[in-house]
Amino acid sequence: MRVVFFGSGDFGVPALRWLANSRHRVVAVVTQPDRPAGRGKKVRPTPLAERAQQEGFEVLRTGNVNDATFVATLSALEADIGVVVDFGQKISEAARSVFPSECINIHASLLPAWRGASPVACAILHGDTKTGVTVFRLTDRWDAGPILLTRETAIGPFETREELFGRLAGVGCDALDAALQLHEGDPLPPGRPQDEANATYAPKLTRADSLLDFESPAEKIARRCRAMWPWPGGRCCFAGASGVHI
């Protein structure tokens, strides 16, 4: 299949690498614009853009994927499907419909659990014993489209968010392979609707999430430390003789 890959963060890098070595053809990679990053605030490409350039793919940077001119650019690529992984922009129906198979998204949870920006952290923080990857059809609502397939895995008792994030990114490759095979048999497989009654949400992490509460049970403190590693980490207030330290 001819694929346009939409991604920005690290989670999509293994899937792009898998596509580069598959029978499918990536005709373009769409990503966020280069932005200042790090302590020096040097302008850098997204992690996905860096990998795409290494693979020799055409990279299209846009701050508005739904701009009419950019949608026309997508249409001209004549791709079969859009694959969306950790992209960071909502893709409108107009942009999705340029692909005969529309767009599919790879999400790092067992939807409808943990829709949103930080599903891996929330799964650990709330004591889930299992998680996984869901491939679903993209719709206008965030992470709410029909489910095409899932891949499940246990969460290790000492696993950090960084470790689980990396494992799930690899699991996403197998899920993507199965999803593309599904679309080869049916350009628009219907999938199954998500159960809204069981939907939970994973908001974007902030610095405040790193604060440890030592009135909580030890197990909850340990889960927060694992869920917040490597950022925002864990911190606490210490009242010593010279004052309060964080």
List the helices and strands and how they pair.
Elements: E1 2-7, H1 13-20, E2 25-31, E3 35-37, E4 42-44, H2 47-55, E5 59-61, H3 68-76, E6 81-85, H4 93-96, E7 103-107, E8 115-116, H5 119-125, E9 130-137, E10 147-154, H6 161-185, E11 201-202, H7 218-227, E12 238-240, E13 243-245
Parallel strand pairs: 1-2, 1-6, 2-5, 6-7, 8-11
Antiparallel strand pairs: 3-4, 7-9, 9-10, 12-13
What value does the average pLDDT take? 95
Q: Give the structural class.
A: alpha/beta
CATH topology of the largest domain: Rossmann fold
CATH architecture of the largest domain: 3-Layer(aba) Sandwich
Number of domains: 2
CATH class of the largest domain: Alpha Beta
Q: What percentage of residues falls in helices of 4 or more residues? A: 25-40%
Radius of gyration computed on alpha carbons: 19 Å
Biggest sheet character: 7 strands, mixed
Q: What are the low-pLDDT stretches, counting only 5+ consecutive residues below 50?
A: none
**Series of H and E elements:** EHEEEHEHEHEEHEEHEHEE
Global morphology: globular
Strand % is 15-25%
The CATH homologous superfamily of the largest domain is termed Formyl transferase, N-terminal domain
The largest beta-sheet arranges its strands as 5-2-1-6-7-9-10
In whole angstroms, how far apart are the ends? 53 Å
Q: Count all strands and give the number.
A: 13
Number of helices: 7
